[in-house]
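Researcher: Please generate the 3D structure of the following complex. Treat every line as part of one assembly.
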Amino acid sequence: MIIETLIAVTLVGALVTFLAPNRIAGKLAFAISLIPAAVSLWMFTAFDGSGNALLEGTLAFESRFEWITLGEYTISWFVGLDGISLPLVVLTTVLTSLAIVSSWTPIDDREAQFYGLVLFIEANLIGVFVALDFFLWFIFWEAVLIPMYLLIGVWGGPRRKYAAIKFFVYTNVASLVMFGAFIALVVGLGDAVTSFALPEITEAMLDGGPGEFAGIAGTTLTSVVFVAMFVGFAVKVPVVPFHTWLPDAHVEAPTPASVLLAGVLLKMGTYALLRFNFTMFPSDVVSTFAIPIAAIAVISVIYGAMLALAQTDLKRIVAYSSVSSMGYVILGLIAYTQYGVGGATFQMVSHGLISGLMFMAVGVIYNATHTRMVTDMSGMADKMPVAVGILIAGAFGYMGLPLMSGFAAEYFIFFGAFGSEMLEYAPIFTALAMFGIVIVAGYLLFAMQRTLFGPYRLETDYEVTRAPFHDVAPMFVLLGLIIALGVAPELIFDMIRDAVDPILGGEL
Amino acid sequence: MATAFEFAPAIALFPLAAFVIALAFGKYMPKKGALAGIAATAASLVFSLWAFVTVAGGETYHETLYEWAVGDPTSEAGVQGIEFTFGILLDPLSTLMLVIVSLIALLVHVFSLGYMNAEGETGLPRYYAELGLFTFSMLAFVFADNLLMAFMFFELVGLCSYLLIGFWFRTESAPSAAKKAFLVTRFGDYFFLLGVVAIAATFGTLQFAGPESFVDAAADAIDGEETLFGFGAETWVTITGLLVLGGVIGKSAQFPLHTWLPDAMEGPTTVSALIHAATMVAAGVYLVARMFGYYALSPTALAIIAFVGGFTALFAATMGVVKDDIKQVLAYSTISQYGYMMLGLGVGGYVAGVFHLMNHAFFKALLFLGAGAVIILMHHEQDMWKMGGLKDKAPVTYYTFLAGALALAGIIPFSGFWSKDEILYDAFVLGLEDPVFGVAYAMALLAVFFTGLYTFRMVILTFHGEPRSEAAADPHPVGPSVTFPLATLGVLALVAGVANLAPIAKLTGMDITYLEFWLDGEYGVVDGLTYTAYTETIGYPAGEIVSEQATLLIAAGLGLGLAVAGALTAYVLYSGPEPVRHTEKLGSVYGVLRNNYYQDEYQVWLARNLTLPVARGADRFDQGVIDGVVNGVSSVSLFGGGGVKRLQTGVVTNYAALIMLGFLALLLVFGLHGGWFL
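Model: Done. Output below.
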């Protein structure tokens, strides 16, 4: 029942905060958010699962009740954790708590509603990562969109409405594509499945797959569904060419929404890709699409990085760099090796921490200067030494500096991809994608040189002072986690590997 | 009884502790963190020496200490089960380098008391923290027992260089130079990382030494005529070896990735001393020596190393002749000298290359610290044309600087002569047999003349003649924290050559080539990492003229003769009370040299006029085409043009209602498919 408690506490907390007076909402939300953070950290230490949740693994904190029976299908409340989902749950709870603290300075309007929505997102994000019934999972999946839409649309920048609608419509249409495809698949599987439980569907898929459905051969159906679901999730990730909602959403979103959007919401897409496309479908289906997917990965990395290079808005730089970083995840997944898929999962967590840190750091500078334009300022290091120091550390984390988590993630992915047997020309794809590590250094170093160093200059009329403690404290926490995972990746890589192995057909 | 090896990790951890202390408490400490750094590097030096002595006693150490990431060999066969670890390898090469690095780091810390503290710098805790982190990274890189660990600390060395080059971040030029240093070396490190990944994916191990090493695995693959990744084993070893070499070329500032190093002079001079003598730049060549067994398997890779080295030696030396800034001259001399080391290693002269690495560490640290002393004397003037006449006013600086200059130019009996002569001799005897190496040798030999020329041009302009500015006439005094490191290094620059008097040994038959014995495992050794083993693997022929002794004398005579000729040329051209700029008489050649062969121009062009417009074009394409399609599709097919406008009412509750409706519609679709309502 621990997972139910986790979600329920967060939901109730969201409601309480929603109704609380604005004055105390921020502190209250932070206090409440410490409960799920503490619970998830306890779960992390008490984790006793093994194997993959979808592939007959032993689930931790499993809980399953029949919920609705409709015709031949059963829908259950079915939740549990394996080595892939647990780190993401911890990432969600920790990052939410820190995002709430980072909101104290910038959010000064309708605080109760703001913090209530943040906690509501958190509850649904946890749901996405713990749900093991498709129906249940889909509810959480869709429910995440609503509060995020509102956070951008209400508390966002000047073009918030355009950005919010674009974000919502784009990702929702993608969900619809994915949803339709999945239902077709389940129907195609016929008598082999009697519920929407993901392990059961996975078993049926690996045990022969769908038969003929509506005049379409089973193998064709499988391929069509694979592509439709890939596209559906690809929008969420996002990969090129489905990425254009992301920079708009980030630029308009308030800092804490950006932290959650980049930190966790993007990982919903890669998590779903891993759970559905790369776990449910047999390896021969995946391998059919290996080269196009690897090409998409490489294009996302390089093209995303090139776009980041062209930006002059600090937040757009970080936003586009997320496209680039998520490309590595796709490359790791399609490598279909222990280090590749494990590294991709590791990168989800690592990028969540690092991009969260970067958005916070940019937010702190924005709080002080009221501009994010590279051309508007220089020499910030003089005025905000601590915040700038953390920003520099975060930027080097983004560049993949060893002993920080980004290096571990990227190295695992590169190593896993280089020796991939599924992917033809794997060394060439790897070499191409790796060039991203040079471009990322280019745009971050350029941006840092122009904004942080040199003589102090600011185009806006604000008195820049040192950031308050509660602005920098969450960044210190994130930096600590990034370094901890970089020095000791086994903290989570151990359980990730354990959950990834069964996907690759390994026997224990 | 505890042994030295049990404390091996402490060698690197002391400076790491100094980093933390200086960063956290530096501003409350009397010397702003300097004392923590001095104590830490002194402790590192003591423990390094202890390890060195222990190795001399016949023991070596090779242990895996920490599992960074563990593959699962039971679930997946092949290289995916690899373990990535941190371990320590203490053998003759690494302990020698540990001593050099910790000694130079200690002297740089001491010197900094006079150079930074006494000059009233701000940001000193940051300076000493970064210095500590730098030393930590380099020491950990040196004793790394595998290629991934080496790469990781190699990158951290790059980070510290970035931070320290950009120490004066309030200026325009220092942050720019720092960025360039990191970016150019990152470009090299891209190839290095690709090489690490390729070697790990091929051989399933990244160990430098022992039966599980990738070197042994590669040798076996070549013997077994295996096909690796579609290539013959030897070709694949060449490819991967050259990929790793990319990192070396970046860090050791070899052509064409040398352009960051002269700009890096924007950092404090003490930092330059550390970067050039013992850390950043030395890391590249040290890596080649560390995995020399791997390069020994590939004659092609070695030939490329030799050729790059020979070319860089000459190329950089010619540019050094026309510089006016004392630090710029030294910067180009560093590039040139590392070219010699590369040449030495490339022709199979493992001992010669390492010997020069050691000697260079001493005399280049000496010259940079000497230049630092000159800059103090000159009230922060670096233009040599404004100096002159410092000889009598600052005798300690002058004579130590002169010792460094004689070593750099390769004048007998100073240390640089012995090691450079050994490199040239190794290249010469191979060049007699193989014209490719002959060309590399010829370039390096010609560079000897230019080295003598620019070195003594620098010495004469700085110290001789009459003062050419007020500052030179009335220099600022320097204290003991400046002169003590200079004196220490000055002695080393004079006598360090005694470590390996190879020519004398060959002529007289005396057993005095101690460094060769050291690296060849006369004392302690790790199997396979010996000079003899490498030489057997490479199997280069050695040519001779008449006899070995005669060949030796010819090679040494040529080198020494050209060095003296260069020095004398400088003396003739620049001595006297009013030296004249002769370089401008070179006409268009002067322009080319002055502009560094336009190497910076084309690299800046690549970044600014190629990459950036491409990025901007991609951005326009993204905004116009990709996003245009998205917006077009949404307005046409989803809602109709007017629909979108009506949707954008701006009232949030409307949106919320719309979202709920959409969600319900989805549930309805799902319900219909699922057959709820049937």
